[in-house]
Amino acid sequence: MGRGRARLGAALMLLGGLLVLSAVSLFAYNSMEDRRAADASGRIAGALAAQIAARTEGGTDGAGADGTDAGLSVDGEAYMGILDIPALGLSLPVMNDWSYARLRISPCRYSGSLEDGIVIAAHNYRRHFGRIHLLSYGDALSFTGARGNTVGYAVADIETLEATAVEDMSESGYALTLFTCTYGGSARVAVRCDRLSPAPAAP
């Protein structure tokens, strides 16, 4: 009887150790992914800023047919421009089209256009959209496109939506929506923004 209890105790201790090791490994992996994403976003945002400055100085028009700014490219991927969220200290590149692989690199356009209302998705990495739930009503954001034109936005609402609420996410009527998964992955955090008067395009 005593020997059986000892074996059970040893097995439970081993199981507990394995669970702790798994938790530590998961934390380390997530931290590594977060750093990798932050490094990639910073490098790409810098490269896009240089391209935008060159277009602006050269008077090149980078407008796309769908009302977005097209023609920016880094590492073979097409980007719309740069999203700035001063309240979170973020300056992030935004890819033209989304995929799960692209979301590991930077935020992506999920649907819509700058002209008619755009939805931007990103992973919940700390240096991507992992802290957007900390934004407050009225916080300012801006988006700078290929022509150096900057559009201003202000936070109007923050929602938590079910993962299946695709229509609610895409057809909200807001000028800009940012969204990401909650840490458990069962829901989505959506930050809704109204458009402010756009700043004049750089000459």
Walk me through what this model shows.
Helices cover 33% and strands 31% of the residues. The protein is globular and about 85 Å long. The chain starts with a helix and ends in an 8-residue tail after the last strand. It contains 3 helices and 9 strands. It has a single domain, classed as Sortase, Chain: A. With 203 residues, it is α+β, with helices and mostly antiparallel strands. Strands 1, 2, 3, 4, 5, 6, 7, 8 and 9 form a 9-stranded mixed β-sheet that branches. Mean pLDDT is 80; it is low at 21-27, 62-69 and 199-203. The chain has helices at 2-58, 100-103, 166-170, and strands at residues 72-74, 77-85, 90-95, 108-113, 117-121, 140-145, 150-162, 176-181, 187-195.
Task: Record the SSE blueprint.
Elements: H1 2-58, E1 72-74, E2 77-85, E3 90-95, H2 100-103, E4 108-113, E5 117-121, E6 140-145, E7 150-162, H3 166-170, E8 176-181, E9 187-195
Parallel strand pairs: 5-8
Antiparallel strand pairs: 1-2, 2-3, 2-6, 4-5, 6-7, 7-9, 8-9
How many helices? 3
Percent strand = 25-35%
Q: CATH homologous superfamily name? A: Sortase
Helix amount: 25-40%
Largest sheet descriptor:
9 strands, mixed
Structurally, how many domains make up the residues?
A: 1
Secondary-structure element string? HEEEHEEEEHEE
- CATH classification class: Mainly Beta
Arithmetic mean pLDDT: 80
Distance between the amino and carboxyl termini: 86 Å
Class based on secondary structure composition and strand pairing: alpha+beta
Give start-end ranges of low-pLDDT stretches. 21-27, 62-69, 199-203
Annotation keywords:
about 200 residues, 9 strands, alpha+beta, 9-stranded mixed β-sheet, Sortase, Chain: A
